Amino acid sequence: YLDSPHFVHEFTKEDLNLLTVMANIAAIRIEHARLAEVEAAERAFARDMSQAADIQRRLLPTKVPQAPGIELAGYNAACRTVGGDYYDFIPFAGGEIGMIVGDVAGKGMPAALMMSSLQARVQVLFDEPQDLASRVARLNRSVAINCPDNRFITFFVGALDPKTGEFVYCNAGHNPGVLVRKHGDIEWLSGGGVVLGILPQAEYTQETRRIDAGDTVVLYSDGVTEAFRPGADEEFGEQRLAAAIAELRGQTAMAIVDGVIQRLTAGRGGVPAADDITLVVARRT
Asked: Could you tell me the pTM of the whole model?
């Protein structure tokens, strides 16, 4: 809006030129102020995300349980600052070791919030290794109540007895675990039931395997098997994962994790991961 105290004064071309210059200067100052506000907001957001990532890392195991005759190792890497993958080790009172892997559909902060909620529920429900299937059913009912319609969680829980080698597990729609025998034979740990959060009244079953000395169990998220090199049509895949574990089976649990991650990184050709990556390895010595 432009005005003048002189009723008969007409604005000239010089007036227009002066106004244009002043308007341009004002616009630049306004844009600089806006960008400064945006930059400050982005710094605050980055700081909050960094703190959220630190909190999320603290929800994951800081060290693995120690049990005679068993080596354990875990690995988690979010493709963004925070992620929706979850793994845990739970030492039970009777000496059994619980192994858990969960994968929330989606990425970023929404998946991370659901992951933290899942972790809290797991800590309450899985206080004993008995009746894993019924505990997963209770977990599913709890998740379904609060889970948005477009979200779900795949979940795998197993309990390994170091003394007998008995491994009881329940797979709720998760990628089948890999059991590599001492001499290289491969078994897939599937079965159990549907993903969590979709059908509140879903029922689950549990399976049992015997883990002998030299056998290795590997649990993982789909960020491992679905990793691929940009421009290539082939994913890393379950068979390539199983072959890698069979090749590494004589090494320590941590060395197996490192070996698989090295193969994934090489297979991506240095390109950042497109999904969260989680690995859990248990090897009976």
From this structure: 0.84
Kindly report, residue by residue over 68-78, the tens digit of the pLDDT.
999 999 999 98
The number of beta carbons lying within 10 Å of the beta carbon of residue 156 is 27
Give the up-direction half-sphere exposure of residue 105: CA atoms within 13 A in the CB hemisphere: 14
Looking at mean pLDDT, say which of 13-27, 31-45, 171-185 comes out highest.
171-185
Separation of alpha carbons 69 and 261, rounded Å? 25
Q: Which residues contact 125 (CB under 8 A, 6 or more apart)?
A: 135, 138, 139, 142
pLDDT top residue among 216 and 55: 216
Tokens of 150: 């477009």
CA angle 57, 260, 192 (to 5 degrees): 75
